[in-house]
Amino acid sequence: MDATPPKTRPPRIAIIGEAMIELSPTGPDSARIGVAGDTFNTAVYLSRLLQGTGATVSYVTLVGDDRQSDRIVSALTDEGIETSLAARLPGAMPGLYMIELDAAGERSFSYWRSDSAARRLFAPGTPVQPDALRDFDIIVLSAISLAIISPEARDRLHDWAQGFRKGGGQVAFDSNYRPRLWPDPETARSEVARFWAITDIALPSVDDEMALFGDADAGAVMARLAQWGVQMGAMKRGAEGPVALDGTGQVLAVAPVEKVVDTTAAGDSFNAGFLAAWLRGGSVGESMAAGHALAARVIGHKGAILPKPD
Ligand code: ADP
């Protein structure tokens, strides 16, 4: 008699991080209000890509109880993202940033995020603790998610994630490096290093890794990550195309994008495309191609988020 195939249910994915209010200029004295953040961008694209598959994409964060926090929760739910772990912290507010354009059209950013609700994620006594993630199949986070939470919260998440992995859970990690969010580079290095050591799906960018760890080139980054136990994922290398982190060194040859309009969310959207394809059973090569296909569209468009498909 044939063995009964194992019952597979659609994956449950938790994306952990901070969504912020974004002000982007529409004129010298006016701005458009949006919602943005690296993990938020990934959540939006992953939710779109997995629509109709039965998969659940949840966003895990803390927001406040003000109108701007409502805006963030609405932006998530409008994209089909589950928000039961986007919990409210009474009296708190979300972070805010403003994009400014200089005379040459170059973008710069001003942030008001040092006291945001999301910074208290996983802190003792707050509504969302790491164990709330136990029923997920995969958790997705970035080094920005790590940088904004407290050292104690990072410890708690790291300890918890080790047990989660023993139980079959998977961790996906992108070492998005923002020096200003860390007290010093040493802290960033030690935190990112210990999260690489518990990562199942690695999604770094070569620039971030070289800036943080001082590697000589992409090969050195790959050798170091492999030594730290990374066995699966892809490293983003801009126009050079991604390279697999599964030990094969397989490179995805990419055609140069004709007109790069805005590289915001290139890496975030790549991560979503990669993960969606991987979760659907794609190979590393197919997943890199899916990540690139989405990122190539995103960089041809102004802003992080493409218009919602009908
Ligand atoms: P990050 O934004 O994290 O630094 P990258 O700049 O490496 O990430 O971009 C992510 C992905 O977007 C790349 O792996 C590649 O697939 C695609 N990409 C980015 N820039 C270009 C480009 N100029 N031409 C073609 N593809 C690009």
Set down the secondary structure blueprint.
Blueprint lengths: L11 E5 L3 E8 L2 E7 L1 H12 L6 E8 L3 H12 L7 E3 L7 E6 L5 E6 L25 E5 H6 L2 H16 L3 E5 L10 H12 L4 E2 L3 H8 L4 H10 L6 E2 L7 E2 L21 H14 L4 H15 L12
Parallel strand pairs: 1-4, 1-8, 2-6, 4-5, 8-9, 9-10
Antiparallel strand pairs: 2-3, 6-7, 11-12
Helix pairs in contact: 1-8, 8-9
The protein binds adenosine-5'-diphosphate.
Written overview of the protein:
With 310 residues, the chain is an alpha/beta fold. The chain has a single domain (18-298), classed as Ribokinase (UDP-N-acetylmuramoyl-L-alanine:D-glutamate ligase), CATH 3.40.1190. The chain contains nine helices and twelve strands. The protein has helices at 38-49, 67-78, 143-148, 151-166, 185-196, 206-213, 218-227, 266-279, 284-298; strands at 12-16, 20-27, 30-36, 56-63, 86-88, 96-101, 107-112, 138-142, 170-174, 201-202, 234-235, 243-244. The protein has a six-stranded parallel sheet with strand order 5-4-1-8-9-10, with helices on both faces. It has a four-stranded mixed sheet with strand order 3-2-6-7. α1 (38-49) packs parallel to α8 (266-279). The radius of gyration is 19 Å and the shape is globular. The protein starts with 11 loop residues before the first strand and ends in a 12-residue tail after the last helix. The relative contact order is 0.12. Adenosine-5'-diphosphate is lined by residues 205, 207, 236-239, 241-242, 254, 256-257, 260, 263, 266-267, 270, 292, 295-296, 299. Adenosine-5'-diphosphate (ADP) is lined by residues 205, 207, 236-239, 241-242, 254, 256-257, 260, 263, 266-267, 270, 292, 295-296, 299.
